[in-house]
Amino acid sequence: MRILVYPHELSLGGSQINAIDLAAEIKNAGHDSIIYGVEGPLTEYIRGKGLDYHAAHPNAVRPNPIRIAQLARLCRRERIDLIHAYEWPPCLDAYYGAHLLLGVPVLCSVLSMWASPLVPDTVPLIMGTEALGDEVRRERRGDGANVYVLEPPIDIVADRPTTDGGAFRRQLGIADNELLVASVSRLSFDLKFDALTDAIDAAASLAAKWPIRLVLVGGGDAESECRRRADIVNALHNREVILLPGPSLDPRPAYAGADVVIGMGSSALRAMAHEKPLVVQGERGWALPCNPDTIGVFLHQGFFGEGAGSSGAPALAAAVERLLEDAERRTLLGKWGRETVIERFSLQAAAKSLIGMFENVRLGEPRIAFRRKAAAFAQVTGRAFVNELQYHLPNYKRRRDAELQRRMQDAVVNANR
């Protein structure tokens, strides 16, 4: 098969890296994988995997008429058998052109924690957790058979405990007797900010008792706010408790150098692959340690959760402290975590499953009646138009900016408590 993979962006992030790693593994299995997307920091990562890359037009409108036409031309020229799009904007770019005009099947992966109503119900979906898969099947009713589940895959060969973390610690001035808690994440207001501020607040409370250092590896639109909050904590303790070294194309040394990792999604799984004890974070103050007693929660809902809205720093600090107190438990949990990843989340097994999904989608495509396609087209076109219009309305922008200001103010207030 000739597969075109269209990630939603090529900035540093777990879902984008997963898309590229899966494409490379599918190529290793004997298929042709082509990556299409707007140029970003991961462009060189794509080339390093030996994958063909075609740059998408950077226009920001969603769905994008320029990319719709560009993608259709690319599919015709490269004789593409199927488009694997990630999230709703790439899905609609593929749907309106290559799919409706040329008949190229589209499979859409949604790795967010909800399914967007902007994905046509005639387009097969891949969800990232069993819980979300069940939810979308119920919503699609008779179309539940075109909903698949594929958990975040981890390259267990690249992510393994043999990576040397000593150089990472020395580079940041972290002594052997200090305890390093690491987070590898986009420093973003969207989905991440609650977890980031909880991590900083938890480290602030633990630093009074433990020789702890918290390293937040990543970059994004919330970086300046995270640095401001870190500066307050560092000044309070008169030492550098919180470090923000910036984003990294290869964060494996950060995982390797950590004593404990906190995070969510594929970052959490990569930590487990490196044999590191883990506390999983989510939104609105949610945090839960990952161990044999809690793994059932994560296998069902994914490595993420949503709390009640209060600060999650106390619960996070307590979970991290239990790990800091017991080096032997950290070692045992690390080994158990890697075994879990090997059994359930390996990249090789995920690629094999994905190839089967590709084959099912190609076989199922001719069976979709034109009437159903027309109804889906009308419904999703109206929703997409309203969504993009609202996004650019001044009132919507003002509300979004006001919410952002409120969250930043809350962060500063909590940091000063």
From TrEMBL:
Domain Glycosyltransferase subfamily 4-like N-terminal: residue ranges: 13-114
Molecular function terms from GO: glycosyltransferase activity
Source taxon at top rank: Bacteria
Matches recorded under CDD domains: GT4_PimA-like (cd03801)
Listed Gene3D superfamilies: Glycogen Phosphorylase B (3.40.50.2000)
Organism per entry: Methylocapsa palsarum
Keywords (A to Z) from UniProt: Transferase
Name used for this protein in its record: Glycosyltransferase involved in cell wall bisynthesis
Record keyword Transferase present: yes
UniProt lineage: Bacteria, Pseudomonadati, Pseudomonadota, Alphaproteobacteria, Hyphomicrobiales
Matching Pfam families: Glyco_trans_1_4 (PF13692), Glyco_transf_4 (PF13439)
